[in-house]
């Protein structure tokens, strides 16, 4: 059977694949994994998904999901091709030994660089997930940011964010709590600004993209850095602002 006819494990663009892992560029609107066993929504990998094992039974064999991105977030998503490798990869994430970098367009100007520390709590009820900052408690969420560009008249900034921790909706909530709402965020965002950016720039979705993942390869131990290019719709928004993606 030729490679063109081989069973697919994903319809997402593949950024890296070897005997042990596969890394894809997940489009916005695609789930990292189905929310229920009977879900018919499009997921990053093919086949039935075992919620307990965090594993897809794809036509080309089993695929173990290592981490996840929100449905509205695009970018680098990693999976393992055997259970032993999955355990090693998940350990790296648990030990914060993986560098996760995101590009996002935010309201205002947070300054050239900095660190955001907060205590976040997440509530799940009636199928909805919401995260909030709790004041007066020790931080459990941390990220570093660097401003790549600022548009003075539109009052928006392009940030490169490195996640130190991995909480649900972390970037969106930490940014919005400082009035630096992510553009296109329909949950925690600045809705008037979202409408303006949709009209002026054609931004129709959340501007949050996981653009780089860096870690030690679970088999070789060599440094591996994988980048996901921005989708055309987000690139066009930056172009209209005169900004250049990294």
List the helices and strands and how they pair.
Layout: E1 14-17, E2 21-26, E3 48-50, E4 55-58, E5 61-65, E6 74-80, H1 83-94, E7 99-107, E8 113-118, E9 120-125, E10 128-133, E11 141-151, E12 156-163, H2 170-177, H3 191-201, E13 208-216, E14 223-227, H4 232-240
Parallel strand pairs: 6-13
Antiparallel strand pairs: 1-2, 2-6, 3-4, 4-5, 5-6, 7-12, 7-13, 8-11, 9-10, 11-12, 13-14
Short description:
The protein is α+β, with helices and mostly antiparallel strands. It contains four helices and 14 strands.
The CATH class of the largest domain is Alpha Beta
> What is the CA-based Rg, rounded?
18 Å
Number of helices: 4
CATH topology label of the largest domain: Pseudouridine synthase
What would the average pLDDT be, to the nearest integer? 92
- Specify the CATH architecture of the largest domain: 2-Layer Sandwich
| Shape, principal axes of CA atoms | globular
Description:
The protein is α+β, with helices and mostly antiparallel strands and 246 residues long. It has two domains: 3-95, Pseudouridine synthase (2-Layer Sandwich), CATH 3.30.2350; 101-201, Pseudouridine synthase, CATH 3.30.2350.10. 16% of the residues lie in helices and 36% in strands. It is built from four helices and 14 strands. The chain has helices at 83-94, 170-177, 191-201, 232-240, and strands spanning 14-17, 21-26, 48-50, 55-58, 61-65, 74-80, 99-107, 113-118, 120-125, 128-133, 141-151, 156-163, 208-216, 223-227. Strands 1, 2, 3, 4, 5, 6, 7, 8, 11, 12, 13 and 14 form a twelve-stranded mixed β-sheet that branches. A two-stranded antiparallel sheet has the order 9-10. The longest helix has 12 residues, at 83-94. It starts with 13 loop residues before the first strand and ends in a 6-residue tail after the last helix. It holds the Pfam family PseudoU_synth_2.
